[in-house]
Amino acid sequence: MRIVASLIASLVVLPGLAAAQERPSAPEAALPDGPPPAGQRGDSYTIGAGIIYLPDYQGSDDYRIIPGGAFRADIGDIELQTKGLKLYAELMPDSDEQVSFTAGTIVGVRFGRDGVEDPVVDQLDNTGTAIEVGGFAGISISGITNPYDNVTARIEVVRDVNGAHDSFVVTPAIDLSTPLSRATFVSLGFSLDIVGDNYADTYFGVTPAEAAEIPELAAYDPDGGGVKSWGATLVVGHSLEGDIRGGWSLFGLAGYSRLLGDFAASPLVAERGSADQFIAGGGIGYSF
Questions:
Q1: Bridge partners of residue 187, in order along the sequence
Q2: Which pLDDT value is given to residue 193?
Q3: Where is the secretion signal located (predicted)?
Q4: 277, HSE (Cβ side, Cα atoms, 13 Å)
Q5: Residue 136 · residue 106 · CB < 8 Å
Q6: Is residue 68 within 8 Å of 126, Cβ to Cβ?
Q7: Cα–Cα distance, 265 to 131 (Å, whole number)
């Protein structure tokens, strides 16, 4: 759980930074006129590493710093990228249209809640490791204020196939990204997490048996699934070589999410943690 969250948060910037390298060169202070035709774009890759400051578990008010890594490859009409311990495969071909569609598959891992800092929460049974499989689809609009900006609305749907939470997670999201110059890139994202009943019980419930063994916690049964949280993330990347499309870049991010309803009312959150969740991080990436 902690590793998954750290990787997602620390390296979410890298796909956006790498995508910029498909564009032609331009003067340092200006943006170029537009990207080359889809058929003329070469393969590109990005690798990165960083650190992230994030909650110990969903709803925790304890924080820790953890390392992470990421990889992205744009090969022909297929784009592969990691976000945390999820692998995304974009299967739609590149398009020169201002409005384009995106779709693909997702395979990921969600580690269980184990070894957390809070001594009371740590007494709960480990939730186990979930293997989540699903897909995503969305629509992108580019060239609104300059040839390089992009607004993407998408929805992701995954389901646990390993029996850890035996439920689903649906994430509608919108991302706005643009280069501020040839060397600097910024992205702002908003999202919701909608989860199933079993997910709510697994990560936010306290069974009567657990409550009997842990006096500090009362039994708690969330009233089904629903909208678990909303969140926003700001990411900034800056090239160390003056061109964000290739070479070494630094990136930083800050994010906030808010647990809602029965999820925020769980004693794991209301009594032992906080509904307000923050992340911050930074790192270095290389695109070629």
A1: 177, 235
A2: 98
A3: 1-20
A4: 25
A5: yes
A6: no
A7: 27
Range of the domain at 83: 2-287
Token readout for 183 is 């060397």
Print burial letters for 12-37: b (CB count within 10 Å at least 16), e (below 16): bbbbbbbbbbbbeebeeeebbeebee
What's 195's domain CATH number? 2.40.160.40
Number of domains in the chain: 1
Q: Report d(CA 32, CA 288) in Å as an integer.
A: 19
Kindly calculate the radius of gyration of the chain based on its CA atoms and give it in whole angstroms: 20
The separation between CA 63 and the C-alpha centre of its own chain, rounded to angstroms, equals 18
Count of CB atoms within 10 A of residue 127's CB?
18
**Residue in the structure block whose two tokens are 């945390």:** 84
Block means of pLDDT (10 residues each) for the chain, length 288 residues?
35 42 39 48 85 93 90 88 88 83 95 90 91 97 88 98 96 96 94 98 96 96 96 95 89 96 98 97 92
